[in-house]
């Protein structure tokens, strides 16, 4: 599917997907929607591309909500989990959507590493998660 999606230009030639299969924080009863479907873009590649772009859009919307509440703008994205680790096209789409480069941690068990960092801070080995992260987190692109 990713190979087919990669062959489709950004914007999926007008096909859009809102991938809210289980709703959203503000609208839990809302469901997924496909828009702009035509004979030209009714292909698996277009649908896969539109889905990935829709996922990125939903993250961007959530980020904008956080920014409106005072979260400072970021210079780069950090991706974790196998969904982003194993999908270079999704990483590219996310980077394009946010207008920022994406880094992926070199370790594969992000939740376990995060729990370890929290534990290290809790027992006083580090003053903050940021300090612990700077010591232990490495990125695939050596960020």
Would you summarize the structure shown here?
The chain is mainly alpha-helical and 143 residues long. The chain has helices spanning 2-6, 44-68, 82-85, 88-98, 110-122, 129-136, and strands spanning 16-18, 33-35, 77-79, 102-104.
Q: Unreliable runs, pLDDT <50, ≥5 residues?
A: none
Based on Cα principal axes, name the global outline: elongated
Compute the CA-based radius of gyration: 18 Å
N-to-C span = 29 Å
Helix content: 40-55%
The strand count comes to 4
Note the total helix count. Answer: 6
Instruction: Quote the average pLDDT.
Output: 91
Order of helices and strands: HEEHEHHEHH
Instruction: Return the structural class.
Output: mainly alpha
Largest sheet: 2 strands, antiparallel
Strand line-up across the major sheet: 1-2
Percent strand equals 5-15%
Structure description:
The chain has a domain at 2-74. 46% of the residues lie in helices and 8% in strands. The chain has six helices and four strands, in the order αββαβααβαα. The strands form two sheets. Strands 1-2 form a two-stranded antiparallel ribbon. It is elongated and about 60 Å long.
Provide keyphrases for this structure.
elongated; two-stranded parallel ribbon; 46% helix; 6 helices; 143 residues; mainly alpha; two-stranded antiparallel ribbon
Topology:
Elements: H1 2-6, E1 16-18, E2 33-35, H2 44-68, E3 77-79, H3 82-85, H4 88-98, E4 102-104, H5 110-122, H6 129-136
Parallel strand pairs: 3-4
Antiparallel strand pairs: 1-2
């Amino acid at each position: 599917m990713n190979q087919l999606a990669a062959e489709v230009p950004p914007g999926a030639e007008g096909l859009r997907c809102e991938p809210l299969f289980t709703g959203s924080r503000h609208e839990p009863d809302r469901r997924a929607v496909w828009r702009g479907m035509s004979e030209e873009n009714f292909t698996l590649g277009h649908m896969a591309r539109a889905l990935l772009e829709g996922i990125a859009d939903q993250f961007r919307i959530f980020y904008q909500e956080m920014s409106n509440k005072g979260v400072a703008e970021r210079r780069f994205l950090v991706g974790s989990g196998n969904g982003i680790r194993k999908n270079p096209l999704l990483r590219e789409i996310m980077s394009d959507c946010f207008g920022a480069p994406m880094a992926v941690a070199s370790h594969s068990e992000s939740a376990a590493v995060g729990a370890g960092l929290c534990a290290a801070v809790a027992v006083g080995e580090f003053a903050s998660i940021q300090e612990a992260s700077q010591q232990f987190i490495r990125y695939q692109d050596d960020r």
